Amino acid sequence: MKVVNEHGLHARPATEFVRLASTFNADVQVSKSDVPVDGKSIASMLTLNAPCGTELRIRARGADAGRAVEELARLVASGFTRYAD
Amino acid sequence: MEIKKGIGVSPGVAICQAVVLDAEEYRIPQRHVSPMRIEGEQTRLDAALARSHEELVQLRDRAGQRLGAETAAIFDFHIALLNDKILLGKIRGIIRDDSVTAEFAVATVLREYAKEFLEMPEYLADRVKDVYDIEKRILRHLIGQSRESLTRLREDVVVLAHDLTPSQTASLDRRHIRGLATDAGGRTSHTAIVARALGIPAVVGLNDVTSRVSAGDIAIIDGNRGVVILNPDEATIAQHRQYVERFRQFEHSLDELRDLPTVTLDGHEIALLGNIEFPSEAATVIEKGGDGIGLYRTEFLYLGQEIKPTEEDHYRAYCEVIEVMGDRPVVIRTLDLGADKYTQQRALVPERNPFLGCRSIRFCFQNLPLFKTQLRAILRASLKGNVSVMFPLISNVMEVRQAKMIMRDVQEDLEEEGVEVRGDVPVGIMVEVPSAALMCERLVKVVDFFSIGTNDLIQYTLAVDRSNERVAPLFTGAHPAVLRLIKEVIRAGQRHDVGVSLCGEMGSQPEFALLLIGMGLRSISVAPPAIPEVKKLVRSITLERARKVARTVIGYDNDKQIVSYLRNQLREVMPEFF
Known about the structure:
Structural class of chain B: alpha/beta
CATH superfamily of the largest domain in chain B: Phosphoenolpyruvate-binding domains
CATH superfamily of chain A: HPr-like
CATH architecture of the largest domain in chain B: Alpha-Beta Barrel
Largest interface: A-B, 21 and 20 residues
Number of helices of chain B: 24
Oligomer: heterodimer
Largest sheet of chain A: 3 strands, antiparallel
Number of helices of chain A: 3
Structural class of chain A: alpha+beta
Number of domains of chain A: 1
CATH class of chain A: Alpha Beta
Strand order of the largest sheet of chain A: 2-1-3
Radius of gyration of chain B: 27 Å
Strand order of the largest sheet of chain B: 1-8-7-3-4-5-6-2
CATH topology of the largest domain in chain B: TIM Barrel
CATH class of the largest domain in chain B: Alpha Beta
Shape of chain B: globular
Distance between the termini of chain B: 26 Å
Radius of gyration of chain A: 11 Å
Shape of chain A: globular
Distance between the termini of chain A: 19 Å
């Protein structure tokens, strides 16, 4: 799925992503090319380097994996509109 | 085991655990810890993280209230980093796998991330600031714990630092510090002065000892040979324990001299006084057999304090010393502030050349209320004993006249207020600026005594920064130019019947004391622990021999030969010193 907000996955949206991801039991992995990073680690998420338009893949494994992917996807798709970017 | 050579500036030998300070007053994030300490480091890390977390939550909430959601969000980011399991895992991993301190692990991991971020587009590169900020925060909590422990130690340690400022030494726990070693500094650096006053060994000018040592290492500080040994092996420790014992015996033998007079073999008396920085040292001067106080440094009232001392603070400090000394002379030197944190921090623009700048008496002239406060306290205290006033860094006759005039004003003020003062307090000057030494014939007419401040006199005459380890070998009182100036000053005093004393570090070295007495000096003021040694020297020589030494020295044209000759002479008169 695509990162749509203007400035990309910078600190604030990344923080929000990690916050949300951490509420789930499932392991969350996010990848840009083929290398996945831990979606619950802010430092790792930042190293993804995902400006506006980047294609990201979100994968989850565990009990609430389905819900995790759904809500995280919604967050990204909404452009993290909680913030005035 | 590593052996580092520096300059021994205070005698003695100490074998202790090392505590390391860096230039910012924090312990350096030093590398290795023994495997037993790894768990302790993890615990320290957790504690620091918890405290940092608390702080950040508070900051975020406050920011949210006052500055809005956006600013608060930055703290959310910091908090997220602090909770980042991968990041923390890396830090803990390094502590465990490399046996290092928490500080080092934190710094390593965070800086790695910072480097990564720097390679990214701007919107992420900006976050490097945040990474450094978090590093600082965590380190502050890690190291802050250690800093407190330096003011309240439970075991004997030696302190290794890049350099030690007066403020730092003022707050060290003196009961447990057994030795000092610094990267920077020379024979008359503050470290040297404090170590001698405390009677503990010190080595300076080691250049990079702080980067070679880890907190907790055992270190041998040999102030006699000017050597620091890190993590010594068993054999070396045993050998140095012998040195410690031998030195202690030598010191004991000196203690027996305490009540004996400082008089040469052929009956000539030398006044042997003490240099003190804190009132508590006055008792030490008497304990060691001194005849009085030749230099009472008064800067301590200002350094290491947050608030300015009042006239009462001054008065109390002076009375404390005078009471201990009874009717023995006490020479109080007015503020010699400058070229240090106090004046540099308070200046709008720090001076580029503090040693040549607004320090000392010049600073006092530009801060009359401060100067007068001190003078008032000195004049009031003078009633209680044998007090003299001494002005530092005098470079011309006008300064003497001005200072005396201000003193008269203060005296008149006090008299008008009905406060009793002594009207005849002797006024002298430190001769430490070359211009004063060269003009001593004129200055001698407007003062009651001279005291030669060789530390600064050598520095200014030879153009060598006394605290700069790179030129430390050039700093020596044996330079013929310095000796010539000293000789002039002593002669001027003799010709006009004005007392001449010497309070620089040079006087405490027996080989130089021998020479100075031969040059006509009859009064020396040294750090209290050095009193017995100098007394022993005086009692081991005749004036005739000292004069011969002085005459011979004139024939040499360089300091190396002079020092060599003096040491040989010393070996003859005081063989047990070696």
